[in-house]
Design a protein that fits this description.
Layout: H1 13-16, E1 28-32, E2 35-38, E3 43-46, H2 49-52, H3 61-71, H4 84-96, E4 101-105, H5 108-126, E5 133-137, H6 146-151, H7 155-158, E6 168-171, H8 176-182, E7 187-192, E8 195-196, E9 202-203, H9 206-218, E10 222-226, H10 241-244, E11 250-253, E12 264-268, H11 270-273, H12 289-302, H13 305-329, E13 332-338, E14 341-346, H14 354-364, E15 366-367, E16 369-370, E17 375-378, H15 386-404
Parallel strand pairs: 3-15, 5-6, 5-7, 7-10, 10-11
Antiparallel strand pairs: 1-2, 2-3, 4-12, 8-9, 11-12, 13-14, 14-17, 16-17
Helix pairs in contact: 3-12, 4-12, 13-15, 14-15
The structure holds pyridoxal-5'-phosphate.
C-alpha cells in the first residue's frame, strides 16, 4: 500500500492529475520569505507569489503562528454556527472600506459567483425580473465556474461546456463609448477588474471607472469591482478602487486575502445585502475559523502604512531593472500595471514567447509569470526585500540572455 513517504516526482503528475495544467519540471518543497527550494535543493527567487497570493512571502512567522494557534483551537463549524475569527475579519474589512456587509467564500471564483448572483437577485427583487443584463469586458478574468467564465471575456475558457448563462455582453476594456452603446435599464451590473490581471496587466483609466460609475447610477445598475488580484495591498492602496476614488457597490477579494490560505470575501452595502435572506446562498467552508484567523493576521500586517508605502518603493526597483533589461535586449514595448502588479509586454519580434522566458527564468532560479502569450507578469510578495529583487532580476536577465541568444 502506498504511504505518504513514497517518493513522488514530476513524472507522476501525468499519471494521477487531470491534464488541465502543464506544471514546471521541478517540484517546490519548501519556502521562506521570497525564496523557494525544490526537491533537488535548488533555490529560486519568487516573483510569482503563487499568482499574487503569498503577499507576505512564504511561511511568514505571524501567519504560521496564527495557523498553529487556531489549528489547535477550532478548524471548522459550518455556517450553522458563526465563529469569532470570521466576525473579527468582517469587522476589519468593513472598518477599512466602503463596505457595510461581508460574506466569506473560499476562492475568487466563489466570491464572484456570489457577487453576480447577488447583483441579479437585487435587480429582480428591487426593480424587475427582466433586469438581468451583465456588462463585462474582453480579456477579463473572473474565475472558472460556468457563470464566472461566462462573465469573463476569454471565450477559450467558456466554450465547449454547453449552454452559457444568458444575457452577458462583452465590450472592449477602457472603452466607455462601447459601454454606453449597450447600457440600458435592463442592465443589472457592470463587472470590471480595476486592473486586469490575467488579461495582460492593464489598468483601467480613471475616466473609464468614473464613467462606469455614472452609467450605473443613471441606469440603477450595480458596479462590481473584481479585486481578487489587484486588491489587498497589491496596488499600493488596500484596494485599487481607493486609487481611483470610484466606489463600487460590490467588491470581491481573494488571492492575497489569506496570504496563501484559501479564503475569499465579497463586500457590499447594507442595502444591497438586505435582499438576501437565510438560504439565498451559502458555502460549507466559507468563513471557516482557520481561514479567517490566518486572513485576519495577514490583514493586520498588509493594512499598515509600512507595507502599503513599501509597495511603490519596490515597484520602482522592479521597473528600473525591467527597463534596463528591456533596453539591453530590445525586449519590452511597455512596462505597466500598478504597485506590485507589474506587466512587461514583449516587443513584436518576441510576441507569443512569454512562456519561453518563464521556463528559462525558472532554469536560472527565478519564478516569474506570464499574463497571456505576450506579457511577462511580476506579482511578488509585498514585503520582498531589495536584495531578493536584485538577485532575482540578475537571474531573470541571465534567462533573457539565453532565450535571446537562442
Ligand atoms: C484569480 C482570479 C480569479 C479567480 O480566483 P480563484 O481563486 O482562482 O477562483 C477571479 N478574478 C480575478 C481578477 C483573478 O485574478
Amino acid at each position: 500500500m502506498a504511504t505518504q513517504q513514497d517518493a513522488v516526482t514530476r513524472a507522476n503528475f501525468d499519471d494521477v492529475i487531470l491534464p488541465i495544467y502543464a506544471p514546471a519540471e521541478f517540484i517546490p518543497v519548501k519556502g521562506k520569505g521570497s525564496r523557494v527550494w525544490d526537491q533537488q535543493g535548488k533555490e529560486y527567487v519568487d516573483f510569482a507569489g503563487g499568482i499574487a497570493v503569498t503577499a507576505l512571502g512564504h511561511c511568514h512567522p505571524a501567519l504560521v503562528e496564527t495557523l498553529k494557534t487556531q489549528g489547535e483551537t477550532l478548524w471548522h463549524t459550518s455556517n450553522v454556527f458563526t465563529n469569532e475569527p470570521a466576525l473579527r475579519l468582517a469587522r476589519k474589512l468593513i472598518d477599512a472600506t466602503f463596505a457595510e456587509r461581508v460574506v466569506f467564500m473560499n476562492s475568487g471564483t466563489e466570491a464572484n459567483e456570489t457577487a453576480f448572483k447577488l447583483a441579479r437577485f437585487y435587480a429582480s427583487t428591487r426593480h424587475s425580473p427582466y433586469k438581468t443584463k451583465i456588462i463585462a469586458f474582453h480579456n477579463a478574468f473572473h474565475g472558472r465556474s460556468l457563470f464566472t467564465v461566462s462573465v469573463g471575456g476569454q471565450p477559450k475558457y467558456s466554450d465547449g461546456f454547453g449552454p452559457k448563462p444568458a444575457d452577458i455582453i462583452h465590450v472592449p476594456f477602457n472603452d466607455l463609448h462601447a459601454v454606453k452603446a449597450v447600457m440600458d435599464d435592463h442592465t443589472c451590473a457592470v463587472v470590471v477588474e480595476p486592473i486586469q490581471g490575467e488579461g495582460g496587466v492593464t489598468a483601467a483609466t480613471p475616466d473609464f471607472l468614473k464613467g462606469l460609475r455614472e452609467l450605473c447610477d443613471q441606469h440603477n445598475a450595480l458596479l462590481v469591482f473584481d479585486e481578487v488580484q489587484c486588491g489587498m495591498g497589491r496596488s499600493g492602496e488596500l484596494f485599487a478602487y481607493m486609487h481611483y476614488g470610484v466606489t463600487p457597490d460590490i467588491l470581491t477579494s481573494a488571492k492575497a486575502l489569506g496570504g496563501g490560505f484559501p479564503i475569499s470575501a465579497m463586500l457590499t452595502t447594507h442595502d444591497i445585502a438586505s435582499v438576501f435572506h437565510a438560504g439565498s446562498h451559502g458555502s460549507t467552508y466559507g468563513g471557516n475559523p482557520l481561514a479567517c484567523a490566518v486572513a485576519g493576521t495577514a490583514f493586520d500586517i498588509i493594512n499598515t502604512p509600512e507595507v502599503l508605502s513599501g509597495v511603490n518603493e519596490k515597484r520602482q526597483l522592479f521597473v528600473k531593472h525591467l527597463q534596463q533589461i528591456g533596453e539591453k535586449f530590445d525586449l519590452f514595448s511597455d512596462i505597466r500595471g500598478m504597485g506590485l502588479l507589474i506587466g512587461a509586454e514583449l516587443k513584436p519580434h518576441y510576441k507569443g514567447r512569454a512562456r519561453d522566458f518563464l521556463y528559462a527564468a525558472a532554469d536560472e532560479g527565478v519564478m516569474v509569470l506570464n499574463a497571456g502569450p505576450d506579457v511577462m507578469r511580476f506579482v511578488p510578495s509585498l514585503i520582498i526585500d531589495a536584495q531578493d529583487i536584485e538577485e532575482g532580476m540578475k537571474r531573470f536577465a541571465d534567462a533573457v540572455a539565453k532565450v535571446v541568444n537562442g
